[in-house]
Design brief:
alpha+beta, five-stranded antiparallel sheet, 8 helices, about 25% strand
Length: about 300
């Protein structure tokens, strides 16, 4: 692996005591799992996020960007190089006949949905139970209740090595739980996004959010998890396949395939990433053997495995 010594000195000189060393990432993830980051720095605005990332890219440093910490499984060995914690959360609403909202990528998506409801704007009710940040939702085309980011995004501000660019939704090339950014894995980062809304009343939006929340509570387990573990294969559901394979309730260490929903793996306290990884491999192997179907991860494996 490329030495970080000289470039890291430049980074530390630029950001000084804002950079923390050897920080456990578990508390920054929804599953409460993850080893240490060599270095951690927090970005509190999209401008600061762009500044940090440009310096990292310019000096060839190893980097991982962490938002809400859902949909990721960070290894027990942790993440080498620099972890950038995205806490850019500015929000601007625009009313009128075609309301919209501009948001920085570090805001928690469910928080944004509830803020829209408080102002009487509809369109994001589906996101009120979606874990993670807007940036992650734009990157992975997050969705729920037959809606997804592709249906709301107007444009996203993307940081590339060429600079800051405004991408219309068409350029994201969205498909089920993926985008051109996720497929290509190139150096690009979501800084902010503008989303379409609709005019409504606070009461109408709140009722709909309540209905979605009740549906989610009745079908998905409480506790620490990463969200849906696998993508649904065409014409079927990953949770159904895992249940049909007899795996619900299977436990390795303190990690369990939920008894409530087979596509959720729950941390019952101090579970290791290795335990979750072992359950992932067991589910993939068993479903493949019984049904000939390959379960594709919806989460991303991060760090040194």
């Amino acid at each position: 692996m490329k030495s970080l010594a000289l470039p890291m000195d430049v980074f530390l000189a630029e950001f000084g005591d804002k950079v923390k060393a050897n920080v456990s990432l578990a508390r920054f993830t929804s599953a409460r799992i993850g080893g240490p980051a060599d270095y951690l720095i927090t970005a509190n605005s999209s401008d600061k996020l762009a500044e940090i990332m440009k310096l990292i890219w310019d000096h060839g440093l190893s980097c991982f960007t962490l938002g809400g910490g859902s949909n990721v499984l960070i290894s027990d060995k942790g993440v080498r190089g620099i972890t950038v914690l995205n806490r850019a959360k500015a929000v601007r609403f625009e009313g009128g006949s075609q309301p919209r909202v501009w948001v920085e990528s570090g805001i928690v998506f469910s928080n944004l949905a509830n803020r829209c409801a408080a102002r009487g704007f509809s369109g994001l009710e589906w996101a009120a139970t979606v874990p993670g940040t807007v940036g992650g939702a734009v990157y992975g085309n997050a969705g729920a209740f037959e809606s997804d980011m592709a249906g709301n995004l107007i444009w996203a501000e993307i940081l590339t090595e060429a600079g800051r660019e405004r991408w219309p939704v068409e350029k994201m090339e969205y498909d089920y739980r993926t985008s051109v950014l996720k497929r290509q894995g190139s150096r690009a980062l979501v800084l902010s996004a503008e989303l379409s809304l609709k005019n409504a009343t606070k009461e109408e939006v709140s009722v709909k959010i309540g209905q979605f929340s009740e549906r989610r509570k009745s079908t998905q387990p409480p506790g620490a998890s990463m969200g849906s573990m696998f993508k649904n294969p065409p014409g079927d559901f990953a949770g159904r396949l895992i249940e049909a394979a007899g795996l619900k309730g299977t436990r390795i260490g303190n990690a369990e395939i939920s008894l409530v929903h087979g596509n959720f793996f729950v941390n019952h306290g101090r579970a290791k990433a290795g335990d979750i990884r072992a359950l992932i491999e067991l589910a993939q192997r068993t479903v493949q053997g019984k049904f000939g179907i390959t379960l594709e991860l919806e989460i991303e494996l991060v760090g040194e495995w």
